[in-house]
């Protein structure tokens, strides 16, 4: 028999956590990773080094807030669970203490539309939530508010969070948000950047959903990401 879907997801969570540290968007075991799985979520355990994790260490947290497994779930299990209970479009959540994002979060700054790629997070800004102590329902409530109509946010005096339809897309968004935070921070060392208008960002939002798709993959009524050249007949 082949591996179960759940075991594959447990392995993917571990691989994602390791990649977070390898790429520098997280340090130590300060971040956490989760994915939707049937009657709840699978999430990294509390306080264990990622390079020691095995699939059996990943914790199952059910929709009612109970858990099973040999480890305690991450201290941030509440907002992972709440996001996926509230958002049908989210199947994976990544939280990190990425340096540039955390810098802005400690200043309690949103990231405005200084660059068109801000649209990857779903709107004309990446919001920063209010602060609350880690592991609390209050923090989860603040994050849900910051994530309204967004796929990512900063967490006040804490870090950043990215969501996605799967772990690969959540990870890719986390990388992009950290890059945007770093470039924004750098522009502020010179002067405040020019901010794109809502209309300019709306134009990007119309098209960015088709980015990376082949013509046959674009849904009816969806705008292509760009005007492609004419394709020669083969």
What does this structure look like?
This protein is α+β, with helices and mostly antiparallel strands and 234 residues long. The longest helix is centred in the last third of the chain and has 24 residues, at 167-190. The chain has a single domain (5-190), classed as Class II aldolase/adducin N-terminal domain (L-fuculose-1-phosphate Aldolase). Strands 4-3-2-1-5-7-6 form a seven-stranded antiparallel β-sheet, sandwiched between helices. It has helices at 5-22, 77-86, 99-106, 137-146, 167-190, 198-208; strands spanning 32-37, 40-43, 59-62, 67-68, 92-96, 152-155, 159-164. The protein is built from six helices and seven strands. The chain starts with a helix and ends in a 26-residue tail after the last helix. Strand 3 and strand 4 (67-68) form a beta hairpin. Helices cover 35% and strands 13% of the residues.
What number is the mean pLDDT?
95
Contiguous helical run count: 6
Q: What is the multimeric organization of the chains shown?
A: single chain
The CATH topology label is: L-fuculose-1-phosphate Aldolase
CATH class: Alpha Beta
- Give the biggest beta sheet: 7 strands, antiparallel
């Amino acid at each position: 028999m082949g591996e179960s879907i759940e075991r594959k997801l447990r392995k993917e969570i571990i691989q994602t956590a390791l990649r977070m540290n390898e790429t520098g968007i997280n340090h130590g075991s300060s971040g956490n990773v989760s994915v939707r799985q049937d009657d709840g979520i699978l999430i990294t355990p509390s306080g264990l080094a990622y390079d020691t994790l095995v699939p059996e260490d990943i914790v199952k947290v059910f929709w009612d807030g109970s858990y099973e497994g040999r480890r305690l779930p991450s201290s941030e299990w509440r907002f992972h669970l709440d996001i996926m209970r509230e958002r049908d479009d989210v199947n994976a959540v990544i939280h990190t203490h990425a340096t540039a994002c955390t810098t802005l979060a400690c200043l309690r700054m949103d990231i405005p539309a200084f660059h068109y790629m801000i649209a990857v997070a779903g709107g004309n800004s990446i919001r920063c939530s209010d602060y609350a102590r880690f592991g609390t329902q209050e923090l989860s409530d603040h994050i849900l508010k910051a994530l309204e109509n967004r796929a990512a946010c900063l967490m006040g005096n804490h870090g950043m969070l990215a969501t996605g339809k799967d772990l690969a897309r959540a990870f890719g968004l986390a990388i992009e948000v950290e890059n945007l935070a770093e470039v924004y921070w750098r522009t502020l060392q010179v002067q405040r950047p020019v901010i794109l208008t809502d209309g300019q960002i709306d134009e990007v939002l119309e098209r960015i959903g088709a980015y990376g798709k082949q013509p046959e993959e674009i849904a009816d009524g969806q705008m292509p990401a760009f005007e492609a050249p004419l394709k020669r007949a083969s």
